[in-house]
Design goal:
alpha/beta, five-stranded mixed beta sheet
Length: 299
């Protein structure tokens, strides 16, 4: 008869029990630090000053050929000031320029974005999100060309051409301000678009009735000087100016009569009849009124 012998090894006991793997604290002691959950949308940036390697060079002009438009080259327009150059444009030419700009094909998005989003060299979150994908994203596109209309004197609540902005939105003294946000993260930054596009746009100035032409010309010379300084800073190899400054020679009341389709707010402060006013639409007013649910109950 066979017999099986099972040899039992002695169990070694430790004087200190191993810690419990559970993350729950039953004794009310200080909780263990939680491991942060990574966010796939926002990059994790270390605190402190940015490393030198993360700095991106100053934006340079892309090598794409400049776009020829109704306003460029400006040889067909009379020059009212030589240095810096300022040209004049009448109401018919303004209408033709805006019509051509509104029907011009837009460039490919990858040639203008994320430059339009605003890539400040000190904004590490923006740079970490965009720039590592391609180091040339901060290049200023030549394929993008626009028109900025600036009203000189008075408020924008009257005598306003469609799309016109105040001078302070695009210029500070004789320089274009840098609108790129140095801190924070935003994929769009719509609030900087006007100032962002101004340096690469032809700028047309006009004044409401009563504004002296000398006042309009004075601001036009400052803007033209800002365009020249901007070109020397970001595109020193370009000999020709790609954007220019114009002053409207037609008085505003004549512009109202000749081209009412260009006017957003008339000289009397009333919105142009041909412009859709979303704040005064009757159908919107009806839908915003409370609907009765029952006696003495509205929603």
């Amino acid at each position: 008869m066979a017999m099986i012998v099972v040899q039992q090894h002695p169990v070694q006991h430790s004087s200190t029990p191993p810690p419990l793997p559970s993350a729950l604290s039953l004794s009310g002691s200080a909780p263990r630090a939680q491991t942060p959950i990574p966010n796939k949308h926002l990059p994790v940036c270390p605190t402190g000053p940015p490393p030198a390697s993360s700095k991106v060079p100053a934006p340079s002009i892309s090598t794409t050929k400049p776009v020829k438009t109704f306003l460029y080259p400006p040889t067909k327009f009379p020059k009212v000031y030589d240095n810096p150059p300022v040209y004049t444009i009448d109401a018919d030419q303004l209408a033709a320029a805006l019509d051509e700009a509104s029907t011009r094909a837009l460039p490919e998005p990858n040639k203008v974005f994320p430059w339009l989003h605003g890539l400040h060299p000190d904004n590490q979150i923006q740079l970490a999100f965009f720039v590592p994908r391609r180091r040339t994203l901060r290049r200023i596109p030549k394929c993008l060309r626009s028109i900025v209309i600036v009203k000189v004197g008075g408020e924008l609540a009257s005598s306003r051409v469609k799309g016109a902005v105040a001078p302070g939105e695009i210029i500070n003294g004789s320089t274009f301000p840098d609108p790129d946000p140095p801190v924070g993260f935003s994929v769009r930054n719509f609030q900087i678009q006007t100032a962002k596009l101004a340096p690469i746009s032809d700028i047309i100035l006009y004044g409401e009735d009563g504004v002296r032409p000398a006042q309009v010309l004075s601001l036009a010379k400052e803007i033209s000087s800002a365009q020249e300084a901007w070109r020397h800073r970001f595109d020193p190899g370009e000999e020709l100016r790609l954007v220019n400054t114009f002053v409207l020679s037609t008085p505003f009341h004549h512009l109202e009569q000749q081209h009412p389709e260009l006017v957003a707010v008339r000289s009397d402060g009333q919105v142009n009849d041909g412009l859709m006013d979303f704040f005064r639409r009757l159908d919107g007013n009806f839908t915003e009124q409370p609907s009765p649910l029952g006696e003495n109950r509205d929603v």
